[in-house]
Amino acid sequence: MTRASEPVTVDTDVLVIGSGAAGMYAAIEAARCGAQVLLADRSLIGRGGATVMAQMTVAAALGEETPDDPSYHYADTIAAGRGLCDESLAQLLCEEAPHCIRELDAWGVGWARKDGGKSGPIAATQAPGHDRPRCVYVDFINTGPAVSKTLRMHLARNPSIHKAGDLCIVDLVVGGGEVTGAVAYHLGSGASVVIAAKATVLATGGLTRLYRRNSASANMGGDGYALALRAGASLIDMEFVQFFPIGHLAPRLVGMDPIMWDPFRYKLGGRLLNGAMEEFTSKYGSDEDGKYRLTRDLATYAITKEVEAGRGSPHGGAYLSFAHCSAAALRDAFGPVIDRLAANGIDLTKMPVEVAPIAHYHMGGVKADARMMSELPGLYVAGEVAGGANGANRLSGNAITEALVFGRRAGQSAATRVKQTARRAFFAQDAAKALVLVRGGGKPAPAANTAAMIARLQAIMADDVGPFRTADKLHRALSGIAALADELGERPSGPASAFDLQRLEWFDLRNMIAVAQAVAQSALNRSESRGAHQREDFPAMLPQWQLHQRVHWRDGALQASGAPAEAMA
After folding, report:
1. SS (H, E, C) 278-289
2. Is 394 a catalytic residue?
3. Which listed residue (296, 424, 469, 535) is catalytic?
4. pTM higher than 0.70, yes or no?
5. Alpha-carbon gap, residue 391 to 383, rounded angstroms
6. For 83-102, how does the pLDDT look when each residue is reduced to its tens digit (9 = 90+)?
7. pLDDT tens column, 422-433
Protein backbone atom coordinates (compact mmCIF):
# COMPACT_ATOMS: atom_id res chain seq x y z
CA MET A 1 0.00 0.00 0.00
CA THR A 2 1.32 3.43 -0.96
CA ARG A 3 1.81 5.66 2.07
CA ALA A 4 -0.28 8.85 2.17
CA SER A 5 2.95 10.92 2.15
CA GLU A 6 3.98 9.54 -1.25
CA PRO A 7 1.54 10.65 -3.94
CA VAL A 8 0.38 8.30 -6.64
CA THR A 9 0.97 9.90 -10.04
CA VAL A 10 -1.32 9.28 -13.01
CA ASP A 11 -0.92 10.48 -16.59
CA THR A 12 -3.86 10.61 -19.00
CA ASP A 13 -5.15 12.47 -22.03
CA VAL A 14 -8.57 13.34 -20.62
CA LEU A 15 -9.62 13.41 -16.97
CA VAL A 16 -13.39 13.22 -16.44
CA ILE A 17 -14.52 14.07 -12.89
CA GLY A 18 -17.94 12.62 -12.07
CA SER A 19 -19.59 9.50 -13.48
CA GLY A 20 -23.26 10.26 -13.82
CA ALA A 21 -24.75 10.31 -17.31
CA ALA A 22 -22.80 13.45 -18.29
CA GLY A 23 -19.45 12.07 -17.13
CA MET A 24 -19.96 8.62 -18.63
CA TYR A 25 -21.06 10.01 -22.01
CA ALA A 26 -18.10 12.44 -21.99
CA ALA A 27 -15.70 9.56 -21.32
CA ILE A 28 -17.27 7.38 -24.02
CA GLU A 29 -17.14 10.17 -26.61
CA ALA A 30 -13.57 11.24 -25.77
CA ALA A 31 -12.40 7.64 -26.08
CA ARG A 32 -14.34 7.21 -29.33
CA CYS A 33 -12.43 10.23 -30.65
CA GLY A 34 -9.10 8.54 -29.84
CA ALA A 35 -8.21 9.82 -26.35
CA GLN A 36 -7.08 7.85 -23.33
CA VAL A 37 -9.52 8.65 -20.52
CA LEU A 38 -9.48 8.46 -16.73
CA LEU A 39 -13.02 8.55 -15.29
CA ALA A 40 -12.84 9.48 -11.60
CA ASP A 41 -15.62 9.60 -9.04
CA ARG A 42 -15.84 9.81 -5.27
CA SER A 43 -18.47 7.05 -5.30
CA LEU A 44 -18.99 3.91 -7.41
CA ILE A 45 -18.57 4.54 -11.12
CA GLY A 46 -21.93 5.17 -12.75
CA ARG A 47 -23.91 4.89 -9.51
CA GLY A 48 -23.60 8.36 -7.99
CA GLY A 49 -25.06 11.70 -8.99
CA ALA A 50 -28.62 12.46 -10.07
CA THR A 51 -29.21 10.40 -13.23
CA VAL A 52 -29.35 7.04 -11.51
CA MET A 53 -32.07 8.41 -9.22
CA ALA A 54 -34.22 10.01 -11.94
CA GLN A 55 -37.41 8.10 -12.70
CA MET A 56 -39.29 10.28 -15.15
CA THR A 57 -38.71 11.48 -18.72
CA VAL A 58 -36.14 12.85 -21.17
CA ALA A 59 -37.05 15.69 -23.55
CA ALA A 60 -36.12 15.32 -27.23
CA ALA A 61 -37.90 16.40 -30.41
CA LEU A 62 -37.91 12.98 -32.10
CA GLY A 63 -41.22 13.55 -33.88
CA GLU A 64 -41.87 9.83 -34.23
CA GLU A 65 -45.29 9.77 -32.62
CA THR A 66 -46.27 13.44 -32.98
CA PRO A 67 -44.71 15.77 -35.61
CA ASP A 68 -41.97 17.78 -33.91
CA ASP A 69 -38.79 19.72 -34.56
CA PRO A 70 -35.88 20.87 -32.36
CA SER A 71 -36.91 24.47 -33.04
CA TYR A 72 -40.17 23.90 -31.14
CA HIS A 73 -38.28 22.30 -28.25
CA TYR A 74 -35.94 25.30 -28.30
CA ALA A 75 -38.86 27.75 -28.13
CA ASP A 76 -40.28 26.01 -25.06
CA THR A 77 -36.84 25.93 -23.39
CA ILE A 78 -36.35 29.66 -24.01
CA ALA A 79 -39.84 30.47 -22.67
CA ALA A 80 -39.20 28.51 -19.46
CA GLY A 81 -35.89 30.33 -18.96
CA ARG A 82 -37.59 33.74 -18.57
CA GLY A 83 -35.24 35.60 -20.90
CA LEU A 84 -31.97 34.30 -19.43
CA CYS A 85 -31.13 31.19 -21.46
CA ASP A 86 -27.74 31.15 -23.16
CA GLU A 87 -29.12 30.71 -26.68
CA SER A 88 -26.11 28.84 -28.05
CA LEU A 89 -26.28 26.25 -25.26
CA ALA A 90 -30.07 25.95 -25.47
CA GLN A 91 -29.82 25.44 -29.23
CA LEU A 92 -27.15 22.77 -28.80
CA LEU A 93 -29.31 21.04 -26.19
CA CYS A 94 -32.36 20.85 -28.42
CA GLU A 95 -30.67 20.10 -31.75
CA GLU A 96 -28.43 17.30 -30.48
CA ALA A 97 -30.98 15.62 -28.18
CA PRO A 98 -32.55 13.36 -30.87
CA HIS A 99 -29.15 11.94 -31.85
CA CYS A 100 -28.33 11.07 -28.24
CA ILE A 101 -31.71 9.42 -27.68
CA ARG A 102 -31.36 7.32 -30.81
CA GLU A 103 -27.79 6.35 -29.96
CA LEU A 104 -28.91 5.15 -26.53
CA ASP A 105 -31.70 3.28 -28.29
CA ALA A 106 -29.12 1.51 -30.46
CA TRP A 107 -27.18 0.66 -27.30
CA GLY A 108 -30.26 -1.06 -25.88
CA VAL A 109 -31.65 1.38 -23.30
CA GLY A 110 -35.19 0.19 -24.01
CA TRP A 111 -37.21 3.33 -24.67
CA ALA A 112 -40.96 2.69 -24.43
CA ARG A 113 -42.63 2.15 -27.82
CA LYS A 114 -46.05 3.25 -28.95
CA ASP A 115 -47.07 -0.32 -29.83
CA GLY A 116 -45.59 -1.76 -26.65
CA GLY A 117 -43.02 -3.73 -28.67
CA LYS A 118 -39.43 -3.12 -29.71
CA SER A 119 -39.75 -1.81 -33.26
CA GLY A 120 -42.54 0.80 -33.32
CA PRO A 121 -42.19 4.56 -32.86
CA ILE A 122 -40.61 5.67 -29.59
CA ALA A 123 -43.44 6.80 -27.32
CA ALA A 124 -43.54 10.35 -25.98
CA THR A 125 -45.57 12.05 -23.28
CA GLN A 126 -46.31 15.74 -22.79
CA ALA A 127 -44.69 17.30 -19.74
CA PRO A 128 -45.49 20.74 -18.27
CA GLY A 129 -44.16 23.61 -20.40
CA HIS A 130 -43.98 21.63 -23.65
CA ASP A 131 -46.26 22.43 -26.58
CA ARG A 132 -46.61 18.76 -27.55
CA PRO A 133 -45.62 15.25 -26.43
CA ARG A 134 -41.82 14.99 -26.72
CA CYS A 135 -40.59 13.44 -23.47
CA VAL A 136 -39.42 9.85 -23.88
CA TYR A 137 -39.08 7.31 -21.11
CA VAL A 138 -38.26 3.70 -20.35
CA ASP A 139 -41.05 3.63 -17.82
CA PHE A 140 -42.12 6.19 -15.25
CA ILE A 141 -40.01 4.77 -12.44
CA ASN A 142 -36.87 3.42 -14.16
CA THR A 143 -35.77 5.86 -16.87
CA GLY A 144 -32.70 7.22 -15.05
CA PRO A 145 -31.49 3.80 -13.85
CA ALA A 146 -31.90 2.40 -17.38
CA VAL A 147 -29.88 5.27 -18.90
CA SER A 148 -27.15 4.81 -16.28
CA LYS A 149 -27.01 1.04 -16.78
CA THR A 150 -26.75 1.40 -20.55
CA LEU A 151 -23.90 3.91 -20.31
CA ARG A 152 -22.09 1.75 -17.72
CA MET A 153 -22.27 -1.27 -20.03
CA HIS A 154 -20.97 0.71 -23.00
CA LEU A 155 -18.24 2.20 -20.82
CA ALA A 156 -17.08 -1.23 -19.68
CA ARG A 157 -16.45 -2.35 -23.26
CA ASN A 158 -13.96 0.43 -24.02
CA PRO A 159 -10.33 -0.36 -23.12
CA SER A 160 -9.35 3.30 -23.56
CA ILE A 161 -11.38 4.28 -20.48
CA HIS A 162 -9.83 3.66 -17.07
CA LYS A 163 -12.07 4.00 -14.02
CA ALA A 164 -11.17 5.15 -10.51
CA GLY A 165 -13.82 5.14 -7.81
CA ASP A 166 -13.47 6.35 -4.20
CA LEU A 167 -11.38 9.26 -5.48
CA CYS A 168 -12.12 12.67 -3.95
CA ILE A 169 -10.86 15.51 -6.16
CA VAL A 170 -9.55 18.26 -3.89
CA ASP A 171 -8.36 20.90 -6.37
CA LEU A 172 -7.70 21.42 -10.04
CA VAL A 173 -4.09 22.08 -10.98
CA VAL A 174 -3.50 25.29 -12.92
CA GLY A 175 -0.22 26.17 -14.63
CA GLY A 176 0.42 28.98 -17.07
CA GLY A 177 -3.25 29.94 -17.01
CA GLU A 178 -4.39 26.46 -18.08
CA VAL A 179 -5.89 23.52 -16.21
CA THR A 180 -3.35 20.70 -16.39
CA GLY A 181 -4.88 18.12 -14.10
CA ALA A 182 -6.02 17.65 -10.53
CA VAL A 183 -5.01 16.59 -7.02
CA ALA A 184 -7.12 14.00 -5.20
CA TYR A 185 -7.02 11.58 -2.35
CA HIS A 186 -8.13 7.97 -2.27
CA LEU A 187 -10.83 7.42 0.33
CA GLY A 188 -9.92 3.79 0.94
CA SER A 189 -6.25 4.39 1.74
CA GLY A 190 -5.80 8.10 2.42
CA ALA A 191 -3.17 8.21 -0.35
CA SER A 192 -2.74 11.46 -2.22
CA VAL A 193 -3.07 11.27 -6.01
CA VAL A 194 -1.74 13.65 -8.66
CA ILE A 195 -3.36 13.41 -12.10
CA ALA A 196 -1.81 15.08 -15.15
CA ALA A 197 -4.20 15.59 -18.07
CA LYS A 198 -4.26 17.54 -21.33
CA ALA A 199 -7.99 18.17 -20.84
CA THR A 200 -10.27 17.96 -17.80
CA VAL A 201 -14.05 17.60 -17.85
CA LEU A 202 -16.12 18.54 -14.80
CA ALA A 203 -19.30 16.45 -14.65
CA THR A 204 -20.00 16.61 -10.92
CA GLY A 205 -23.68 17.57 -10.97
CA GLY A 206 -25.44 20.27 -8.97
CA LEU A 207 -25.73 21.59 -5.43
CA THR A 208 -28.98 20.26 -3.99
CA ARG A 209 -27.18 18.71 -1.00
CA LEU A 210 -26.87 22.27 0.31
CA TYR A 211 -30.53 22.00 1.30
CA ARG A 212 -32.08 20.04 4.15
CA ARG A 213 -34.65 18.48 1.82
CA ASN A 214 -33.52 17.54 -1.66
CA SER A 215 -34.12 15.02 -4.43
CA ALA A 216 -30.55 14.07 -5.32
CA SER A 217 -27.75 11.93 -3.94
CA ALA A 218 -25.48 12.88 -1.05
CA ASN A 219 -22.53 13.77 -3.29
CA MET A 220 -24.34 16.68 -4.98
CA GLY A 221 -22.76 19.36 -2.81
CA GLY A 222 -21.54 21.63 -5.60
CA ASP A 223 -18.04 20.16 -5.84
CA GLY A 224 -17.58 21.14 -9.48
CA TYR A 225 -18.60 24.74 -8.88
CA ALA A 226 -16.08 25.07 -6.05
CA LEU A 227 -13.29 23.39 -8.03
CA ALA A 228 -13.89 25.74 -10.96
CA LEU A 229 -14.10 28.81 -8.71
CA ARG A 230 -10.81 28.12 -6.97
CA ALA A 231 -9.12 27.43 -10.30
CA GLY A 232 -10.19 30.86 -11.62
CA ALA A 233 -13.29 30.13 -13.74
CA SER A 234 -16.54 32.13 -13.50
CA LEU A 235 -19.92 30.90 -12.33
CA ILE A 236 -23.18 32.37 -13.62
CA ASP A 237 -26.84 32.35 -12.53
CA MET A 238 -26.07 30.88 -9.11
CA GLU A 239 -29.23 32.32 -7.56
CA PHE A 240 -31.53 30.07 -9.59
CA VAL A 241 -32.29 26.95 -7.56
CA GLN A 242 -35.33 24.96 -8.69
CA PHE A 243 -37.61 23.67 -5.95
CA PHE A 244 -40.08 20.88 -6.57
CA PRO A 245 -43.32 21.58 -4.65
CA ILE A 246 -44.53 18.09 -3.76
CA GLY A 247 -41.39 16.15 -2.92
CA HIS A 248 -42.05 13.12 -0.73
CA LEU A 249 -41.68 13.85 2.97
CA ALA A 250 -43.28 11.02 4.96
CA PRO A 251 -43.68 8.14 5.64
CA ARG A 252 -40.27 6.75 4.76
CA LEU A 253 -39.94 5.87 1.07
CA VAL A 254 -37.02 3.62 0.11
CA GLY A 255 -35.75 3.09 -3.43
CA MET A 256 -38.10 5.57 -5.12
CA ASP A 257 -37.72 9.08 -6.50
CA PRO A 258 -39.04 11.70 -4.03
CA ILE A 259 -40.54 13.69 -6.92
CA MET A 260 -42.55 10.72 -8.20
CA TRP A 261 -45.95 12.15 -7.18
CA ASP A 262 -46.20 14.82 -9.89
CA PRO A 263 -47.47 12.76 -12.86
CA PHE A 264 -49.90 10.82 -10.69
CA ARG A 265 -51.32 13.97 -9.15
CA TYR A 266 -51.71 15.40 -12.64
CA LYS A 267 -53.51 12.27 -13.84
CA LEU A 268 -55.71 11.58 -10.81
CA GLY A 269 -56.21 15.02 -9.29
CA GLY A 270 -54.51 14.30 -5.98
CA ARG A 271 -55.78 16.66 -3.29
CA LEU A 272 -53.48 18.92 -1.29
CA LEU A 273 -54.60 19.15 2.35
CA ASN A 274 -53.20 21.03 5.34
CA GLY A 275 -52.62 19.63 8.80
CA ALA A 276 -56.33 19.90 9.58
CA MET A 277 -57.11 17.83 6.44
CA GLU A 278 -58.57 20.90 4.71
CA GLU A 279 -58.01 21.89 1.08
CA PHE A 280 -56.19 25.22 1.06
CA THR A 281 -55.03 26.15 -2.42
CA SER A 282 -58.01 28.46 -3.01
CA LYS A 283 -56.49 30.81 -0.40
CA TYR A 284 -53.54 31.36 -2.73
CA GLY A 285 -55.21 32.01 -6.07
CA SER A 286 -56.37 28.62 -7.32
CA ASP A 287 -59.41 26.50 -6.55
CA GLU A 288 -58.29 23.22 -8.05
CA ASP A 289 -61.75 21.64 -7.89
CA GLY A 290 -60.32 18.13 -7.83
CA LYS A 291 -58.01 18.72 -10.77
CA TYR A 292 -54.28 19.46 -10.93
CA ARG A 293 -54.24 23.10 -12.00
CA LEU A 294 -51.76 24.59 -9.62
CA THR A 295 -48.43 25.66 -11.12
CA ARG A 296 -45.25 24.56 -9.35
CA ASP A 297 -44.39 28.01 -8.05
CA LEU A 298 -47.90 28.58 -6.68
CA ALA A 299 -48.02 25.11 -5.11
CA THR A 300 -44.67 25.78 -3.44
CA TYR A 301 -45.92 29.12 -2.16
CA ALA A 302 -49.21 27.71 -0.85
CA ILE A 303 -47.57 24.84 1.05
CA THR A 304 -44.86 27.08 2.46
CA LYS A 305 -47.36 29.64 3.74
CA GLU A 306 -49.60 27.00 5.33
CA VAL A 307 -46.60 25.60 7.21
CA GLU A 308 -45.51 29.10 8.30
CA ALA A 309 -49.05 29.70 9.62
CA GLY A 310 -48.86 26.56 11.76
CA ARG A 311 -51.22 24.58 9.55
CA GLY A 312 -48.72 22.12 8.14
CA SER A 313 -48.62 18.34 8.39
CA PRO A 314 -46.70 16.70 11.28
CA HIS A 315 -43.37 16.64 9.42
CA GLY A 316 -43.63 20.23 8.15
CA GLY A 317 -45.37 19.93 4.81
CA ALA A 318 -48.84 19.18 3.47
CA TYR A 319 -50.85 16.04 2.86
CA LEU A 320 -51.33 14.65 -0.64
CA SER A 321 -54.43 12.45 -0.74
CA PHE A 322 -55.69 10.01 -3.37
CA ALA A 323 -58.40 8.63 -1.06
CA HIS A 324 -61.10 9.81 -3.47
CA CYS A 325 -59.75 7.35 -6.08
CA SER A 326 -60.74 3.69 -6.23
CA ALA A 327 -58.19 0.91 -5.87
CA ALA A 328 -58.78 0.05 -9.54
CA ALA A 329 -58.14 3.64 -10.65
CA LEU A 330 -54.96 3.77 -8.59
CA ARG A 331 -53.73 0.48 -10.02
CA ASP A 332 -54.52 1.64 -13.56
CA ALA A 333 -52.59 4.89 -13.07
CA PHE A 334 -49.69 3.66 -10.92
CA GLY A 335 -49.24 0.13 -12.25
CA PRO A 336 -46.32 -1.64 -10.52
CA VAL A 337 -45.66 1.48 -8.43
CA ILE A 338 -48.59 0.37 -6.23
CA ASP A 339 -46.64 -2.75 -5.26
CA ARG A 340 -43.49 -0.78 -4.51
CA LEU A 341 -45.51 1.61 -2.35
CA ALA A 342 -47.03 -1.35 -0.52
CA ALA A 343 -43.50 -2.61 0.22
CA ASN A 344 -42.95 0.75 1.93
CA GLY A 345 -46.15 0.36 3.96
CA ILE A 346 -48.13 2.90 1.91
CA ASP A 347 -51.74 2.16 0.91
CA LEU A 348 -53.11 5.19 -0.94
CA THR A 349 -56.71 4.04 -0.52
CA LYS A 350 -56.37 4.39 3.25
CA MET A 351 -53.79 7.07 3.91
CA PRO A 352 -52.36 10.30 2.50
CA VAL A 353 -48.65 10.93 2.16
CA GLU A 354 -46.85 14.05 3.34
CA VAL A 355 -45.18 16.24 0.72
CA ALA A 356 -43.13 19.45 0.85
CA PRO A 357 -41.04 21.67 -1.43
CA ILE A 358 -37.56 20.21 -1.93
CA ALA A 359 -34.44 21.42 -3.74
CA HIS A 360 -34.48 19.61 -7.05
CA TYR A 361 -32.14 21.19 -9.61
CA HIS A 362 -29.77 24.08 -10.19
CA MET A 363 -29.87 26.24 -13.31
CA GLY A 364 -26.60 28.07 -12.65
CA GLY A 365 -23.05 26.79 -12.90
CA VAL A 366 -19.73 27.18 -14.67
CA LYS A 367 -19.81 29.58 -17.60
CA ALA A 368 -19.05 27.75 -20.83
CA ASP A 369 -19.43 28.14 -24.59
CA ALA A 370 -21.05 25.73 -27.05
CA ARG A 371 -17.87 23.61 -27.05
CA MET A 372 -18.54 23.19 -23.31
CA MET A 373 -15.21 24.91 -22.66
CA SER A 374 -14.93 27.16 -19.63
CA GLU A 375 -13.01 30.42 -19.52
CA LEU A 376 -9.94 28.39 -18.48
CA PRO A 377 -8.16 26.57 -21.31
CA GLY A 378 -8.16 22.85 -20.67
CA LEU A 379 -11.32 22.86 -18.52
CA TYR A 380 -14.65 21.63 -19.91
CA VAL A 381 -18.01 21.12 -18.23
CA ALA A 382 -20.92 18.77 -18.79
CA GLY A 383 -24.42 18.30 -17.37
CA GLU A 384 -25.81 20.23 -14.43
CA VAL A 385 -22.44 21.74 -13.51
CA ALA A 386 -22.68 23.87 -16.68
CA GLY A 387 -24.58 27.14 -16.28
CA GLY A 388 -26.68 29.15 -18.68
CA ALA A 389 -28.66 26.74 -20.85
CA ASN A 390 -31.77 26.81 -18.66
CA GLY A 391 -31.82 30.47 -17.73
CA ALA A 392 -34.01 31.26 -14.73
CA ASN A 393 -35.97 27.99 -14.77
CA ARG A 394 -35.41 24.59 -16.36
CA LEU A 395 -38.02 23.13 -18.69
CA SER A 396 -39.36 19.79 -17.48
CA GLY A 397 -37.50 16.86 -19.04
CA ASN A 398 -34.34 18.77 -19.97
CA ALA A 399 -32.16 17.50 -17.11
CA ILE A 400 -31.07 14.11 -18.47
CA THR A 401 -31.11 15.65 -21.95
CA GLU A 402 -28.42 18.16 -21.02
CA ALA A 403 -26.40 15.46 -19.28
CA LEU A 404 -26.33 13.45 -22.50
CA VAL A 405 -25.87 16.30 -24.98
CA PHE A 406 -23.36 18.33 -22.98
CA GLY A 407 -21.46 15.20 -21.93
CA ARG A 408 -21.12 14.10 -25.54
CA ARG A 409 -20.00 17.56 -26.70
CA ALA A 410 -17.55 17.98 -23.80
CA GLY A 411 -15.97 14.61 -24.65
CA GLN A 412 -15.59 15.63 -28.29
CA SER A 413 -14.04 18.98 -27.39
CA ALA A 414 -11.66 17.49 -24.83
CA ALA A 415 -10.44 14.92 -27.37
CA THR A 416 -9.92 17.69 -29.94
CA ARG A 417 -7.74 19.57 -27.45
CA VAL A 418 -5.70 16.42 -26.83
CA LYS A 419 -4.93 16.16 -30.55
CA GLN A 420 -3.92 19.82 -30.67
CA THR A 421 -1.72 19.74 -27.55
CA ALA A 422 1.79 18.57 -28.38
CA ARG A 423 2.88 18.12 -24.78
CA ARG A 424 1.40 18.29 -21.31
CA ALA A 425 2.50 21.37 -19.41
CA PHE A 426 2.24 19.87 -15.93
CA PHE A 427 4.62 21.00 -13.21
CA ALA A 428 4.82 19.45 -9.75
CA GLN A 429 5.05 22.83 -8.03
CA ASP A 430 1.58 23.73 -9.34
CA ALA A 431 0.15 20.86 -7.30
CA ALA A 432 2.18 21.51 -4.15
CA LYS A 433 -0.38 23.58 -2.23
CA ALA A 434 -3.18 21.08 -2.78
CA LEU A 435 -0.91 18.20 -1.80
CA VAL A 436 -0.10 19.85 1.53
CA LEU A 437 -3.83 20.17 2.17
CA VAL A 438 -4.46 16.51 1.34
CA ARG A 439 -1.57 15.10 3.36
CA GLY A 440 -2.31 16.98 6.56
CA GLY A 441 0.27 16.38 9.27
CA GLY A 442 1.92 18.94 11.50
CA LYS A 443 0.00 20.34 14.45
CA PRO A 444 -3.61 19.16 14.23
CA ALA A 445 -6.26 21.84 13.98
CA PRO A 446 -9.09 21.64 16.53
CA ALA A 447 -11.42 18.88 15.42
CA ALA A 448 -14.80 20.26 14.32
CA ASN A 449 -18.08 18.39 14.38
CA THR A 450 -18.31 18.34 10.60
CA ALA A 451 -21.59 16.41 10.47
CA ALA A 452 -23.27 18.99 12.68
CA MET A 453 -21.79 21.80 10.58
CA ILE A 454 -23.25 20.31 7.39
CA ALA A 455 -26.64 20.12 9.08
CA ARG A 456 -26.34 23.76 10.15
CA LEU A 457 -25.46 24.84 6.62
CA GLN A 458 -28.40 22.90 5.21
CA ALA A 459 -30.71 24.58 7.73
CA ILE A 460 -29.39 28.03 6.81
CA MET A 461 -29.96 27.40 3.12
CA ALA A 462 -33.41 25.88 3.63
CA ASP A 463 -34.67 28.58 5.99
CA ASP A 464 -33.10 31.69 4.46
CA VAL A 465 -32.13 30.87 0.83
CA GLY A 466 -35.15 28.75 0.00
CA PRO A 467 -37.98 29.21 -2.50
CA PHE A 468 -39.02 32.63 -1.12
CA ARG A 469 -36.33 35.10 -0.16
CA THR A 470 -35.96 38.52 1.41
CA ALA A 471 -32.98 40.80 1.99
CA ASP A 472 -33.15 40.15 5.75
CA LYS A 473 -33.09 36.38 5.26
CA LEU A 474 -30.22 36.55 2.77
CA HIS A 475 -28.10 38.83 4.98
CA ARG A 476 -28.70 36.41 7.86
CA ALA A 477 -27.69 33.49 5.64
CA LEU A 478 -24.46 35.15 4.55
CA SER A 479 -23.59 35.88 8.18
CA GLY A 480 -24.22 32.25 9.16
CA ILE A 481 -22.21 30.93 6.20
CA ALA A 482 -19.28 33.19 7.12
CA ALA A 483 -19.37 31.92 10.71
CA LEU A 484 -19.20 28.33 9.44
CA ALA A 485 -16.24 29.21 7.23
CA ASP A 486 -14.37 30.65 10.22
CA GLU A 487 -15.18 27.57 12.29
CA LEU A 488 -14.02 25.19 9.55
CA GLY A 489 -10.55 26.67 9.32
CA GLU A 490 -8.05 26.40 6.48
CA ARG A 491 -7.15 22.73 6.67
CA PRO A 492 -8.49 19.45 8.06
CA SER A 493 -7.32 18.17 11.40
CA GLY A 494 -4.66 15.47 11.61
CA PRO A 495 -2.91 13.45 8.91
CA ALA A 496 -4.66 11.60 6.08
CA SER A 497 -5.87 8.09 6.84
CA ALA A 498 -8.09 5.42 5.32
CA PHE A 499 -11.89 5.77 5.40
CA ASP A 500 -11.78 8.97 7.44
CA LEU A 501 -15.34 10.25 6.96
CA GLN A 502 -14.78 13.32 9.10
CA ARG A 503 -11.92 14.33 6.82
CA LEU A 504 -14.14 13.80 3.77
CA GLU A 505 -16.80 15.99 5.38
CA TRP A 506 -14.18 18.71 5.93
CA PHE A 507 -13.46 18.78 2.19
CA ASP A 508 -17.20 18.64 1.48
CA LEU A 509 -17.79 21.64 3.74
CA ARG A 510 -14.94 23.54 2.11
CA ASN A 511 -16.80 23.23 -1.20
CA MET A 512 -20.33 23.59 0.15
CA ILE A 513 -19.59 26.79 2.06
CA ALA A 514 -18.05 28.48 -1.00
CA VAL A 515 -21.00 27.49 -3.19
CA ALA A 516 -23.59 28.45 -0.58
CA GLN A 517 -22.02 31.89 -0.37
CA ALA A 518 -22.20 32.22 -4.17
CA VAL A 519 -25.91 31.32 -4.19
CA ALA A 520 -26.83 33.62 -1.29
CA GLN A 521 -24.83 36.60 -2.55
CA SER A 522 -26.24 36.28 -6.06
CA ALA A 523 -29.76 36.01 -4.63
CA LEU A 524 -29.22 39.11 -2.49
CA ASN A 525 -27.95 41.09 -5.47
CA ARG A 526 -30.89 40.16 -7.75
CA SER A 527 -33.55 42.57 -6.53
CA GLU A 528 -36.41 41.12 -8.58
CA SER A 529 -38.35 37.88 -8.94
CA ARG A 530 -37.67 35.76 -12.03
CA GLY A 531 -38.26 32.07 -12.63
CA ALA A 532 -37.00 29.99 -9.72
CA HIS A 533 -35.66 33.07 -7.89
CA GLN A 534 -38.48 34.66 -5.90
CA ARG A 535 -37.96 37.73 -3.69
CA GLU A 536 -40.93 38.54 -1.47
CA ASP A 537 -39.55 42.06 -1.05
CA PHE A 538 -39.15 42.49 -4.84
CA PRO A 539 -42.06 40.54 -6.38
CA ALA A 540 -41.89 41.94 -9.94
CA MET A 541 -39.75 40.73 -12.85
CA LEU A 542 -37.78 43.75 -14.08
CA PRO A 543 -36.37 44.31 -17.60
CA GLN A 544 -33.08 45.75 -16.31
CA TRP A 545 -32.39 42.39 -14.67
CA GLN A 546 -32.46 40.43 -17.94
CA LEU A 547 -28.78 39.65 -17.54
CA HIS A 548 -26.46 37.08 -16.02
CA GLN A 549 -24.62 37.62 -12.77
CA ARG A 550 -21.10 36.25 -12.56
CA VAL A 551 -19.27 35.04 -9.50
CA HIS A 552 -15.44 34.93 -9.36
CA TRP A 553 -12.83 33.91 -6.79
CA ARG A 554 -10.25 36.68 -6.57
CA ASP A 555 -7.55 37.23 -3.93
CA GLY A 556 -9.06 34.66 -1.62
CA ALA A 557 -12.56 36.14 -1.64
CA LEU A 558 -15.78 35.72 -3.57
CA GLN A 559 -16.66 38.59 -5.92
CA ALA A 560 -19.89 39.10 -7.86
CA SER A 561 -20.44 41.18 -10.98
CA GLY A 562 -23.11 41.79 -13.59
CA ALA A 563 -25.87 43.47 -11.58
CA PRO A 564 -27.45 46.66 -12.99
CA ALA A 565 -25.77 49.84 -11.83
CA GLU A 566 -28.74 50.92 -9.72
CA ALA A 567 -28.73 47.57 -7.92
CA MET A 568 -25.09 48.01 -6.93
CA ALA A 569 -25.59 51.51 -5.52
Report:
1. CECHHHHCCCCC
2. no
3. 296
4. yes
5. 14
6. 999 999 999 999 999 999 99
7. 765 667 788 888
